[in-house]
Design a protein that fits this description.
With about 230 residues, the chain is mainly alpha-helical. The protein is about 75% helix and about 5% strand.
């Protein structure tokens, strides 16, 4: 009988590896993934690989097309816009709620996450993207609204792929990086100070200037070029 802990470890390894390849663009959008060949390539059996693919499918990163194949989900201008519209409303809501309900533990988590932020200089820098996610996750959790937290968490991996499109289309200037870092500092400061109005307004500006919004224009431009 297989050891469940070992199987779980292999499934987690396969998930992490596939997620890395998708988020860095190593596995291109729309590409078909043979489960048999992929399992051989990364050194796991097909059972933990399928578990990893089901997890990625739940996050919207792949589509399961048959028992043997999967496909990396394609990116579209329409989905980029839908994600932006959701974040434009829900991120400021989460920040405002966080300002009113943060606890000392939440404040400590926000301060730690803020101290670990580094600029998103390259689309393949998953460490910087993870630190960026941890900061926003700390804000979301401080809202103490489980439904809102789950919605925003569930969209994050999908949104990260569009952030990469934004970075690949045009790298941030030093001015952009300074602006983004200052926005993070202001968001954290407003939440910690309990200023819900300022927290919402600052988060709104942050989303308006986000890489996700930049991705909309890039993908719309690419779509227009493909049309006859």
């Amino acid at each position: 009988m297989p050891n469940p802990a070992v199987a779980l470890t292999k499934s987690a390894y396969a998930y992490d590896e596939l997620r890395r390849r998708i988020l860095t663009g190593e596995m291109a959008q729309g590409s078909v993934l043979s489960q048999v060949l992929l399992a051989q390539e990364i050194g796991v059996s097909t059972t933990p690989l399928r578990e990893a693919l089901r997890r990625l499918a739940a996050e919207g990163l792949v589509q399961l097309e048959s028992h043997r194949d999967a496909r990396v989900t394609s990116l579209t201008a329409e989905e980029a816009r839908d994600l932006y519209v959701i974040r434009e409303s829900m991120d400021p809501l989460a920040a405002g709620l966080a300002a009113g309900s943060r606890t000392p533990a939440d404040i400590a988590d926000i301060e730690t996450a803020l101290s670990q932020l580094t600029p998103l200089r390259d689309a393949t820098d998953l460490a910087a993207m993870t630190a960026h996610r941890e900061f926003h996750r700390a804000i979301y959790r401080a809202s103490h609204n489980p439904l809102l937290i789950n919605i925003l968490e569930g969209l994050w991996d999908k949104a990260d792929r569009y952030r990469q499109v934004g970075l690949q289309g045009r790298k941030d200037s030093e001015k952009d990086r300074i602006r983004v870092q200052e926005e993070h500092i202001q968001i954290a400061g407003a939440v910690i100070a309990g200023d819900a109005v300022r927290a919402r307004e600052t988060m709104q500006r942050h989303v308006t200037g986000s890489l996700g919004r930049r991705a909309i224009a890039i993908l719309e431009g690419a779509r227009d070029l493909e049309q006859p």
